[in-house]
Amino acid sequence: MSLIARLWSVGLTLSLIVVACASAPTLSEDAKAVQRVDALIVSLADAYRGRAVDRLMAGFAPSVSGNEQLRHTAEGVFARFDQIELTIVVDRMHFEGNTATVFLHWDGRWRSDEKDPLLRQGTARFVVAAGSPAMITEVIGENPFGTVPDASAQS
Description:
This protein has 155 residues and is α+β, with helices and mostly antiparallel strands.
């Protein structure tokens, strides 16, 4: 093989490699659903820590039982505590069609000025309609956003 043919072959191979690496991967519909559900959980935790009750409630379907109580509880917690820390860890997701069941645990820390923080933790199962946008349709267990820290259990 001549030198020119070899250089052309190497150049063509390198060009194909660059083109292949430059194109973005195409996600499956299942992967997109997982991303939507994960983004929902992250955005809810961010809204709660940021005291954004409207953003928090936007992640819950209007049909969720106790929606108004959840709003009232969150507003009360936001007014009562100066600092809110909430960590949510998703243990696993199970999909059945367009519905995801998200198993998670959470740790919260609520603090008022000059008082020891209140520490709570719990587990929950969120049932999520994984469409666009993803929305929580049911909460089973200890809802991290509906928890009212008890001042009598303060450290």
